[in-house]
Write a structure and sequence with these properties.
binds the ligand Cc1ncc(COP(=O)(O)OP(=O)(O)O)c(N)n1, UDP-N-acetylmuramoyl-L-alanine:D-glutamate ligase, 8 helices, alpha/beta, binds adenosine-5'-diphosphate, 18% strand, 9-stranded mixed β-sheet
Length: 282
């Protein structure tokens, strides 16, 4: 595992998450910031929504005004600078449209230099919606063509392109269908492939497939796994790694985080990047 620890006094790479808050701290921008910190990256946020959430589910959420989401992106990009950015919960068409415009204005994604990871969060693992159903078109039409990488899970694949993956052999068909929507790279996550002995995610750039193999850890506590993976990839991109190496790093990172997950509350506990904090550095 690469160190990624910046030298003392040196400004670390800067990463931005455009995401919702999880009051339980397991997913959302809390997971993103925790992962950024554990990957030696300065984390910044554009908050899109505040969820009322714990280990058993999401009981509601309030959206931020779309112009405030856009203003947060502009504020950090024009002063601090952004080496890589990611999205999580975006909630609505209005917010997605504002995010696309703001990213366009500050050079995040598209043909611009700043890598842009789009995690198309649609629902929590308990099935609670985190995106209005009429916002799927905006996700597909406004954000995917700007993305360096999109990282759907299998439920999101079904919603976005209507492909139902029930076996590992279906992952490549899903990757092809999502790639048609315009992102540079697609990573199909296999965590929801019930019954599969391994978790082999598939990366695709329109011509070549790269398999990301990994064992399936026998645990119920996988809350925040998708956020942690996308944030670890974003961190590696902020450090300047190329896309394939960054995704390999993210896969190793999330596997370790799943192995170190812990129970919390009455429901599903979070994956944990805290193993990256080494006590002997204090
Ligand atoms: N039980 C598990 N053991 C090992 N890796 C897992 C497990 N569950 C999910 N993963 C990995 O965690 C990442 C997130 O996957 P997934 O659960 O499909 O996404 P999401 O959290 O967005 O629903 C993927 O790299 C996936 O392979
Ligand atoms: C505020 C918020 N954002 C995203 C999620 C979903 O996170 P994810 O990493 O996909 O994890 P699970 O929902 O699968 O645990 C969320 N729950 N809340």
């Amino acid at each position: 595992m690469a160190s990624l620890v910046p030298a003392p006094g040196v400004t670390p790479p800067r990463a931005l998450t455009i995401a919702g808050s999880d009051s339980g701290g397991g997913a959302g921008l809390q997971a993103d910031l925790r992962t950024f910190a554990c990957c030696g990256v300065h984390g910044m946020t554009a908050v899109t929504a505040v969820t009322v959430q714990n280990s058993v589910g999401v009981s509601g959420f309030t959206e931020m005004p779309a112009d405030v989401v856009a203003a947060q992106i502009r504020a950090v990009a024009t002063d601090i600078g952004v080496d890589a950015a990611k999205t999580g919960m975006l909630a609505s068409t209005e917010i997605i449209s504002a995010v696309a415009d703001a990213c366009d204005a500050v050079g995040i994604g598209g043909s611009d230099a700043t890598p842009f990871v789009v995690d198309p969060v649609a629902a929590s693992m308990h099935g609670d919606p985190l995106l209005h159903s009429d916002a799927l078109d905006a996700l597909r039409g406004l954000l995917f063509p700007r993305a360096t990488l999109v990282t759907p899970n299998l439920d999101e694949v079904r919603l976005l392109v209507g492909v139902d993956v029930t076996e590992p052999s279906g992952l490549r068909k899903a990757a092809r269908a999502v790639h048609e929507l315009g992102p540079r790279w697609v990573l199909i996550k296999a965590g929801h492939l019930a019954g599969a002995p391994d978790c082999v995610d598939v990366l695709y750039d329109g011509s070549e497939f790269v398999e990301l193999p990994g064992p399936r850890v026998d645990t119920a506590h996988t809350h925040g796994g998708g956020d942690t993976l996308a944030s670890a990839i974003t961190s590696a991109l902020a450090h300047g790694m190329d896309l394939v190496d960054a995704v390999r790093f993210g896969k190793r990172f999330v596997l370790r985080a799943v192995r170190e997950s812990y129970p919390l509350g009455a429901g599903v506990g979070p994956v944990s990047p805290l193993w990256r904090i080494s006590p002997e550095r204090v």
